[in-house]
Amino acid sequence: MTGTNYTSIETIPSIIQSLRTQFNTGLTKDVAFRKQQLANMIRFCNENNELLCDALWKDLRKHPMECDVGEISPIVDECEFMIKNLDKFTKPTYTTKRFIMNATDKTFIRKEAKGVVLVMGAWNYPVNLLLMPVVGAIAAGNCIAIKPSEVSQHTAELMATILPKYLDPRAYTVITGAIPETTAVLENRFDHIFYTGNGLVGKIVMTAAAKHLTPVTLELGGKSPAIVTEDADVNITAHRLLWGKFFNNGQTCVAPDYVLVAKSKLEPLLEAFRKTIVEYYGQDAQKSGSYGRIVSTRQFDRLKGLLDNCDPSTIVIGGETDREDLYMAPTIVSPVTPDNALMQQEIFGPILPVIPVEDMDEAIAFVNGRDQPLALYIFASPKYNYNKILDNTSSGGVLVNDILMHLQELSLPFGGVGPSGMGAYHGEKSFETFTHLRSTMVKDLMSEPVSSCRYPPYNEDKGKILGVLVYGLPAGVGAKISTVGSVCGAFWNFMLNKSSTGSDSKL
């Protein structure tokens, strides 16, 4: 998709206003309407599976199997989950009242749509990371401005041209464009913004949202570490760790960004890495249909610069590149020092630094010396007590003895902490993210004779009654007996006084 096909900047304010006008009609609040739109999303995924896979191949050289597992099937699964559970999710939740004064009243929480929301997708998983939050926003009853990343241009074009044929265009609009168009979009007021991408743009999004006091969900990234303990199974670790690292050519927000390994396991792990890479991609990964490509020359040059900055002797596996093909071989670099360029930013590509450590205390200190990562991976034997690592580190999520699979399990909320993001989604959490919990109380008019003790003029009798109605009786049998007598007397005086003044209401 080129600039000539982008949404006109001049039309963006009217597009957003149209969504707001539509939301105010109540169209998207109807649960049956939401279910139908979710069913339409399933049809979009199923009927356009080949087109989606073709676009993903052109953008990222994704194998159809990676397209299905990482992009399309999760969207279908999430839609089916929402349709099945939407009636339950939208029901009011009744609360247990804590104040005696409210004992006869109704207190409940309504689940209401926030309004008009903006969902901004990312280029590395241009279907999943765009549509997964959209599913949650539809289920919650919002109108949505959908902004795909222009970097994955073929997928963005497909979203712009085909998705509106399935979703009601009155309530859901796809806006395309690069920095100028995105800037224009962010100038408008939304009721929630959901952004997936890097921290630099995340700060821009949050700054724009602050002008309108708009809440945000930021799904960012960071340097997610993998810790390999001294008793880990080296063969299983190599297979699972490298599958997750090189899935989508390393362009995954929760890909392992570096490995901390016990020194006793370093050489066995590197040898297992060598065998695993050949097993996965053959002697020449460039000829493998299962190995992807870097998304653009800009990203390729960034990664090549990181590699060129390394001591050639530390590139123990891979290192080959082909700019014309946007190919970078599966690459392992070891040893790596903390001040190496590879350790200064999220790599987001098929380069994996391996750092030997004396023990797990050193590994924990290494992780804690950096920003909280989006994911933390621990490889250990079944008998290993990994809780020490969990108790002494912080991360968005944790996975023990595998890579990426916690992201695939949609029953787990997914999100970051600190610089790796804020807020979470997936499953019921997606519905909650785009929902306003509206606290509601319906007071009982028949309780007015008692409730009126809170009205001025204040006196000692009213104070005693309110003390019980609000705070309850004090602990202890003697105290309760004394208090009951005192309150009863105060209540009797209060009611007599009301009758004498004629202030009692006729209810």
Automatic annotation (TrEMBL):
<dbReference type="InterPro" id="IPR016161">
    <property type="entry name" value="Ald_DH/histidinol_DH"/>
</dbReference>
<dbReference type="GO" id="GO:0004029">
    <property type="term" value="F:aldehyde dehydrogenase (NAD+) activity"/>
</dbReference>
<dbReference type="InterPro" id="IPR029510">
    <property type="entry name" value="Ald_DH_CS_GLU"/>
</dbReference>
<keyword id="KW-0560">Oxidoreductase</keyword>
<dbReference type="InterPro" id="IPR016160">
    <property type="entry name" value="Ald_DH_CS_CYS"/>
</dbReference>
<dbReference type="GO" id="GO:0005737">
    <property type="term" value="C:cytoplasm"/>
</dbReference>
<dbReference type="InterPro" id="IPR016162">
    <property type="entry name" value="Ald_DH_N"/>
</dbReference>
<feature type="domain" description="Aldehyde dehydrogenase">
    <location>
        <begin position="14"/>
        <end position="438"/>
    </location>
</feature>
<dbReference type="GO" id="GO:0006081">
    <property type="term" value="P:aldehyde metabolic process"/>
</dbReference>
<dbReference type="Pfam" id="PF00171">
    <property type="entry name" value="Aldedh"/>
</dbReference>
<dbReference type="InterPro" id="IPR015590">
    <property type="entry name" value="Aldehyde_DH_dom"/>
</dbReference>
<protein>
    <recommendedName>
        <fullName>Aldehyde dehydrogenase</fullName>
    </recommendedName>
</protein>
<feature type="active site">
    <location>
        <position position="253"/>
    </location>
</feature>
<dbReference type="InterPro" id="IPR016163">
    <property type="entry name" value="Ald_DH_C"/>
</dbReference>
<keyword id="KW-0520">NAD</keyword>
<comment type="similarity">
    <text>Belongs to the aldehyde dehydrogenase family.</text>
</comment>
<feature type="active site">
    <location>
        <position position="219"/>
    </location>
</feature>
<dbReference type="InterPro" id="IPR012394">
    <property type="entry name" value="Aldehyde_DH_NAD(P)"/>
</dbReference>
